[in-house]
Design goal:
Blueprint: E1 6-12, H1 18-28, E2 33-36, H2 42-53, H3 59-80, E3 83-87, H4 95-106, E4 111-114, H5 124-129, E5 132-134, H6 137-149
Parallel strand pairs: 1-2, 1-3, 3-4, 4-5
Helix pairs in contact: 1-6, 2-3
C-alpha cells in the first residue's frame, strides 16, 4: 500500500510569498503533501466570470460571475483537503480567508491559522475554531512534519 499523500489547502492572503515558503519547507522536509489553493492572480480571480460568460456593465454582477465561478474551485478543494491552512495578512482584510475558515470549520476540517500577533483580538473566534495558530510559515511546515511523520522540530 502506498503512503498517504496529505492534501493541504492554502487559503488567504495573496500579496506575499508565504505559500512558496511553505512549499519550499515541505520539499526540504520531504513531506508527502499535495498543496492546493485558490487562483492567486488577483485580476484572473476577479475577471474570470466575465472573460468566460460575457461582459457585465454593473460591477456587482461582474463580481458575482467571478465569485460564483471561483467558489466551484474553492469549495471542491476545501472538501477534498485533509488540512486547511488559512493566512490572514497584514495589509488587507481577507474576507475570502474568513469565509474559507468558516466553510472548512463547518466541514469539520482541521484548520491551521497563520497570522501576526496584532490580529489576535480581531481573529479570536477564527483562532478558537482552529486546531493551531502559527505566526510564521516555517511553523506550519513544522506542524505538518509533526502531524504526518511525528517529527519534532530541531
Amino acid at each position: 500500500m502506498a503512503a498517504k499523500i496529505w492534501k493541504v489547502y492554502l487559503s488567504g492572503e495573496i500579496h506575499s510569498d508565504w505559500r512558496e515558503q511553505i512549499a519550499d519547507g515541505i520539499r526540504v522536509a520531504s513531506l508527502a503533501v499535495e498543496l492546493s489553493g485558490p487562483i492567486t492572480v488577483h485580476e484572473d480571480s476577479d475577471d474570470c466570470g466575465v472573460a468566460i460568460f460575457g461582459h457585465e456593465s454593473d460591477k456587482f454582477w461582474h463580481d458575482q460571475k467571478g465569485a460564483k465561478l471561483n467558489s466551484i474551485r474553492t469549495e471542491t478543494l476545501l472538501r477534498e483537503a485533509d488540512i486547511v491552512v488559512v493566512r490572514f495578512g497584514e495589509k488587507y482584510k481577507q474576507w475570502n480567508a474568513a469565509y474559507d475558515a468558516g466553510f472548512a470549520s463547518a466541514l469539520g476540517k482541521p484548520i491551521i491559522i497563520l497570522h501576526q500577533p496584532e490580529h489576535d483580538h480581531p481573529l479570536k473566534e477564527v483562532d478558537a475554531a482552529a486546531c493551531a495558530v502559527a505566526r510564521e510559515p516555517r511553523q506550519v511546515v513544522q506542524a505538518l512534519a509533526y502531524i504526518i511523520n511525528g517529527i519534532m522540530p530541531e
